[in-house]
Amino acid sequence: MEGFFRSFMQVYRPMVTQLNELLAEYHLSYSLWQVIFYVQREGHSTLVEISSHYHVEKPSITRRVHRLEELNLIQVIPSENRREKVIQLTDHGAAIYQECREKITKLEHQILEGCTEQEIKNIFQALNKIQNNMISKEGNVRE
Amino acid sequence: MEGFFRSFMQVYRPMVTQLNELLAEYHLSYSLWQVIFYVQREGHSTLVEISSHYHVEKPSITRRVHRLEELNLIQVIPSENRREKVIQLTDHGAAIYQECREKITKLEHQILEGCTEQEIKNIFQALNKIQNNMISKEGNVRE
DNA sequence: GTGTATAGTTACCTAAAGTAACAGTTAACC
DNA sequence: GGTTAACTGTTACTTTAGGTAACTATACAC
């Protein structure tokens, strides 16, 4: 068990780098991608929903959303509740989502290449358990 | 396989947060811990060695080492080659390493609690393979 | 309808890393 | 053996991403 953090971190940095390189072409980064992903999956979304899903403070999400608006990937739609800002993907956003989704999935396959079915199954299970262990230990992570 | 990055990232943030909370008591962060860990394991080390091991630029390591010197955890020892700065842990550094090592190992156990032997074995194997896949794909990661 | 809670924003700060440029030292090599 | 090239570490500046505190506008409670 010792060395888990070490292994995990050693993988983390280059993984994010590769993801960001992949997304750079679209002027995106992984943190922006997270928002696109959420909105694509959930449809109409508010900033607080995104913020609490990813456990990131509201100002961070405000910034991410602003950049996505500038990139014309996300648009605001009128809401009955004038406090909240409801957003959705633009057509362009949906197209970019599709493109990135495919590339990211391909990268996922490349990165997991050589892993057995069993290893992959176990790694997903383990990540899930880890996530739950952390939730219970602290008010952290996941929706 | 799809969703691997998502799961991985969802675990990453709270994990680092917990690690940093654990280390905060010693005025450390995980990035500083990495240097302590390296020097503890390798003994006399130069900044370039650390830099290339973690694939982090030299200025970052300079900064980390300076902070560790301020904290009196690391000291410079005279080197025949006057270009390079050879460092080692101070006695205090070695003691702090020991304390942190134990706490970190404990946290590793907590976080992996509920995972089967098999899952743990596989997750280590998988992380290893991933690392290698990334090295081959790009000039990234690991020593 | 007055007070409280909520959504989003702004301004400011922090952590960590990257790039470029440079000084000092060593090695190369002709 | 003296000049050039390469290497180690540092400084200064920039970038990315997030956090906190304070504020505005709106909605809800009662």
Oligomeric composition of the shown chains: homodimer
Give the proportion of residues in helices of chain A. Answer: 55-70%
Largest sheet of chain A: 3 strands, antiparallel
CATH superfamily of the largest domain in chain A: Winged helix-like DNA-binding domain superfamily/Winged helix DNA-binding domain
Structural class of chain A: mainly alpha
Supply the number of structural domains of chain A. 2
Radius of gyration of chain A: 17 Å
Percent range for β-strand residues of chain A: 5-15%
What is the distance, rounded to the nearest whole angstrom, between the alpha carbons of the first and last residues of chain A?
27 Å
CATH class placement of the largest domain in chain A: Mainly Alpha
CATH architecture of the largest domain in chain A: Orthogonal Bundle
Most extensive chain contact?
A-B, 53 and 54 residues
Helix and strand element order of chain A: HHEHHEEHH
Number of strands of chain A: 3
Number of helices of chain A: 6
Shape descriptor of chain A reads: globular
In the predicted model, the low-confidence regions of chain A spanning at least 5 consecutive residues are 139-143
Q: Could you say what the CATH topology of the largest domain in chain A is called? A: Arc Repressor Mutant, subunit A
Mean pLDDT of chain A: 91
Query: Strand arrangement, largest sheet of chain A?
Result: 1-3-2
